[in-house]
Amino acid sequence: MILNYLIYLDMENYRIFDSELDKLAHKVIQMCSQVNLQLIDVVLALRTNDLKLAKKVISDDELINSLDVKIDKLCQKIFALQQPVATDLRYIISSLKINNDLERVGDHATNIAKRIEPLQDYKSLVEELGIYEIGQKTTELFSKVVDLVKSHDLAIAETIMEEADALKDECKQIAAKVLEEMMHQSEVVVVATNLLVIINIFERISSYSINIAESITFVVNGEIVKHRKQQ
Amino acid sequence: MIMSENKIHTENMFLYYSGKMALNNISITIPEKKVTAFIGPSGCGKSTFLRSLNRMNDLIDGVRIDGKVMIDGVNIYDKNIDVVNLRKKVGMVFQKSNPFAKSIYENVAYGPKINGVNDKSHLDEIVETALKNAAIWEEVKDRLGDSALGLSGGQQQRLCIARTLAVNPEIVLMDEPASALDPLSTAKIEELIVQLKEKYTIVIVTHNMQQAARISDNTAFFYLGELIEHDKTKKIFTNPDKKQTEDYITGRFG
To answer: What's the complex ipTM?
Structure first.
């Protein structure tokens, strides 16, 4: 058995309760890896126009949805039967939130997959606007999210928060360029609309990455770091 | 941090049973009109500490106490302290309900009577108020003359609380007051404790961590005779500062 939960805590004394938490930790990591795979596949499909791969991304969303329900149920069971406190409590609350964020990222990957076909005749425009690069950067960011969920290493959380902010700014700049294209060439309006949605999705994935980094920070030190910028 | 008017304050307090140290350097401030819970594994000193707050340990041979135990700014171990008056001011409820083998009425009237209240209508009023404050009046008002021993366990415990309240204390110490009761009676006692803090300072020892979490404003964790951590209950149960506290409340030892 992989004792993920105990690794986070660096604990020696094993409780019966820990097997449930290990199961949860295992499932959250599994969910995160699966979502990461979906994201890598969809960005690859976008770059290579691989419609078969895009279809696989759409059908694999089932796996994510089923894990999502399993994690929700497991958290519910632990809350009801174990009355968790302290780190255990923070871990379960955060698992629920992370699970939710991951499920959304999975949906977003599917959404991109559905928009690959209409882009086929506009490869050079897509390339020119830097859509592939932003996709690549988003997958790189998200692979750090996987590392973070596996390790609970707050240094990674800090890196994610910084890089995701920069990536969001980049997305906004590209979106502005796409709008400009739309104004100058009316024939690209349909494809550009799809591109705007895709860019918006990459921006959203950066936001979800920040959320997950914040949730892990909360597990580790009990500190609520979200909305830090606004304060 | 805990902010409120101080009621109880100890400073560098040590307690020895026949020379063996049972409490090691306890310094704590307990706020007025709040519920403070003491938690910790068996033998950690929490009940010993509770009992030292109204000098119940005086009754045990070989007990020695060093340091200060202040209530309202007065050291209760000073030579000129009247222990009977102290215990009037600092009442106590025990784990096992222990009503006198007398009527319900006499149980509650006993304290005021030995304190010199003889007027029948005044006694009636004290008994009614105490039983109401202990949330048992409605259940017993028609049978005040019946034996207290005929009440259920949960009712007996609330009667004992009424008996404590009848002498008008300022502090109520409770040593596992609900541990021998079923969930419904426990819920009644817990609800009562939360109501009582409007008028009284409550200090409660409990092994039931969820109970401490539900009813107390502040929680103090004791381990091996030491006070490890004392903070807002919300903080202790979501993000304690000390690893020993975390290990205990999450069930890793104790």
So the answer is: 0.77
